[in-house]
Structures are given as C-alpha cells and as structure tokens.
UniProtKB/TrEMBL annotation:
<dbReference type="InterPro" id="IPR011032">
    <property type="entry name" value="GroES-like_sf"/>
</dbReference>
<keyword id="KW-0479">Metal-binding</keyword>
<feature type="transmembrane region" description="Helical">
    <location>
        <begin position="27"/>
        <end position="48"/>
    </location>
</feature>
<dbReference type="GO" id="GO:0008270">
    <property type="term" value="F:zinc ion binding"/>
</dbReference>
<dbReference type="GO" id="GO:0046294">
    <property type="term" value="P:formaldehyde catabolic process"/>
</dbReference>
<feature type="domain" description="Alcohol dehydrogenase-like C-terminal">
    <location>
        <begin position="253"/>
        <end position="384"/>
    </location>
</feature>
<dbReference type="Pfam" id="PF08240">
    <property type="entry name" value="ADH_N"/>
</dbReference>
<dbReference type="GO" id="GO:0004022">
    <property type="term" value="F:alcohol dehydrogenase (NAD+) activity"/>
</dbReference>
<keyword id="KW-0812">Transmembrane</keyword>
<keyword id="KW-0520">NAD</keyword>
<keyword id="KW-0862">Zinc</keyword>
<dbReference type="Pfam" id="PF00107">
    <property type="entry name" value="ADH_zinc_N"/>
</dbReference>
<feature type="domain" description="Alcohol dehydrogenase-like N-terminal">
    <location>
        <begin position="83"/>
        <end position="211"/>
    </location>
</feature>
<keyword id="KW-0472">Membrane</keyword>
<keyword id="KW-0560">Oxidoreductase</keyword>
<dbReference type="InterPro" id="IPR002328">
    <property type="entry name" value="ADH_Zn_CS"/>
</dbReference>
<comment type="similarity">
    <text>Belongs to the zinc-containing alcohol dehydrogenase family.</text>
</comment>
Amino acid sequence: MSSSNTAGQDDTFRGIHTFKHSLSKQYYVFSCFRAMSYLCLWFFFFFLGQLIDGWKCIAAAVAWEAGKPLVIEEVEVAPPKAMEVRLKILFTSLCHTDVYFWEAKGQTPLFPRIFGHEAGGIVESVGEGVTDLKPGDHVLPVFTGECKECQHCKSEESNMCDLLRINTDRGVMLSDGKSRFSINGQPIYHFVGTSTFSEYTVVHVGCVAKINPAAPLDKVCVLSCGISTGLGATLNVAKPKKGSTVAIFGLGAVGLAAAEGARIAGASRIIGVDLNAKRFDEAKKFGVTEFVNPKDHDKPVQEVIAEMTGGGVDRSVECTGSINAMISAFECVHDGWGIAVLVGVPNKDDAFKTHPMNILNERTLKGTFFGNYKPRSDLPSVVERYMNKELELEKFITHEVPFSEINKAFEFMLKEK
Ligand SMILES: [Zn+2]
Ligand SMILES: [Zn+2]
C-alpha cells in the first residue's frame, strides 16, 4: 500500500521515535477578509513526533465548542487513503470564514473540529492512486477542488467541480465518510476538506495545488483563499483594459486583492468604496486612487460614481456581501460596456433588484467563485505572478503569531470586525 509511505521531510518525524521531543520552527500567518490585517512572527513549540504504523501523533488546534478558545492538542492523524495526500503544514493563515464557522451562529455546529483553510505545506505521503504528487512537493491546499473529470472540470469556463466543490457541512473525508483525525479514538471533524490548523493534515488530491518549490510558503499561503478570490474576480472575470476605471466595493482583504488585480491590469483610476474611512490609507498601497464613503453623500453611491467618471466606471467588483453594495456596484458601471462582478456572499433572504433598463442599456452583471481559478490548473501560475514580482503579497500580511498562540489571531480578527 502506497499509503504506508511515511518518510517525512523532517528528520524529527522520521523513524520509530517514541515521543521524541523536538524543537520546531513554524510560522502562523493570519489574514482576514474584512479587517485586512495579517500578522506574522517566528515561533517555536515542542511537539511529540510519534510514528506507529503510519499514524502520526501531532499538534493541532482543536475547536471543542463554538466560540471557545482553540486548544492545542496531541492528535493522531491517519495515513492517507486512496486519492488522498498527507501534508505537513508549515504556514497557515486565518480567514473570516474560519471565524464564522467557529462562532457557529448561523449554521449547524459541528464540533470538535480542526479549522483552517489557507496554508502552505509539503507533501509527506500519498495514498493509492495518487500519481501527480509525491513526498516533498510544495503545495497549497484549497477549500474547493478540481477532480479533472466532471463536466465542470472539463469545461474551460468553470471551476465549480461537482465532486470537490466547497462543502462546509461535511466534516469527514469523501471516500469513506470518516475523519482522519482522532484523540484517543474520538474522531475530530475536518473543515472544508483542509483543516490546516494542524502540523499535519489529510486532503483529497484534487484539493491540492502543486507549486514552485522556490516560492516562500509563508507568503504564498495566503493564495489558498481570499487573495486569489479577489485577484481572479478582477483579472479573470471583470478583465479591465489598460487605462480603464474600476470601482471596488469593500476594502477588506478580498477587495484589496481585487484592487491589486486592477493595478496589475493597468487601470488608470481605482475607486475604493467603503463605509470605513480608516481603510483608505491602507488601500493606497494596493493602487486605490480615490475613495468614496457612501455615508458622506445624501444620494446613492452609484450616482456619485457616475458623476465622478462621466457616466460610470468601466468595471466594478463587489466584495462586501451587502445586497445594497451589490446593486450599487451594478448600477455604477457605464452603459454600453460596463461589467460588474459580484464576489461577496449575501444573506440567505436577499434579493437583487434593479430596473431591467439597466441591463438593456448594455451593462453586464457577473458573479464568481474563487476568482474563477481552477485550483490545481491555475494556482501555480498565480504563484508565478508573485515570483515574477508582478503580484505583491507582503503588503497583505500585517501580523505574525506563533501557532501556539493561535487564539490571539482570532482575537485580532474579532477586534477588527
Ligand atoms: Zn477563506
Ligand atoms: Zn471536477
């Protein structure tokens, strides 16, 4: 069984050591959708590397209950089964989606669970049938997948894989409906197929993008989710031409990544729209040239933008999830050619309302999921954009905290909300 391949990249895990204490260096990077702040710092922590029949005993941050601090626990991680890979996670970041499901205010709670879905790591072992990844490969796990066989994967236009599309309710692996994590026999649930708040995790091979091994994982780990989502919304869907005007609604991490996409595309004016004026200074680093706070005006923001731009912007990207922002983002694009792209996730009962004339006058409304990137096929090229210095990722990272202090990252995020 190839799943018995357990030769790790790290000497501390190799061989039959029983509770060998080792000092390991690891980053914990965190990001957030709304607050747009990441923090990184070096940290050290002790862990117990134990290897019995391919099982690993590792440290993971377990959420036992909704809204309660995570607890660093010694967790057993099973070997990968068919079409699965086991990853050593080196860096992970925190996204608002982790916090949302950890708070479990709007969904059925599923605990105990290991959260985390933005990360960079190295393949440690592969299960049966895995041919395009091998131990040592540098990878980004992704919350949505690409099986390469379904009608979506076969379509050039879609990235919404039938088999591996994001599923926030499932806390187990697809193949056998079981978890690969346990503590004294008690299963610990997975989160969106990634569970990266753990030294090791098991992921379906279709949710793993193999990237350039020279890419620094502490930086490119943020491409697993929000940054690619915003960047792709602009570059793959809105597709602004050089010299065009672009409005970005919402200047959280996703919105700033959308602005970064507009900057890369050569937009001449990038108008940031946000209710929080404090964000404008930060947004300048991402190419935002003008700022509109809807609170400062007594008319709809789409009218303000139309006046600023002689009839409307060429492109707009909405990254807030607010239904009013979505409508404004659509109505602020120029007639004749304007394209608006929706990225934010609305509330359950929201309805989009606009006069049909706005569409008849040749405005286009589009939506996107994960920036239209196919995780396995396209993420490696996004990493290359960073390697070529076209895409800047450092400015998205504002905080670093040790993995052992992961709860601090949650506190930062909650404070910024
Ligand atoms: Zn995310
Ligand atoms: Zn598929």
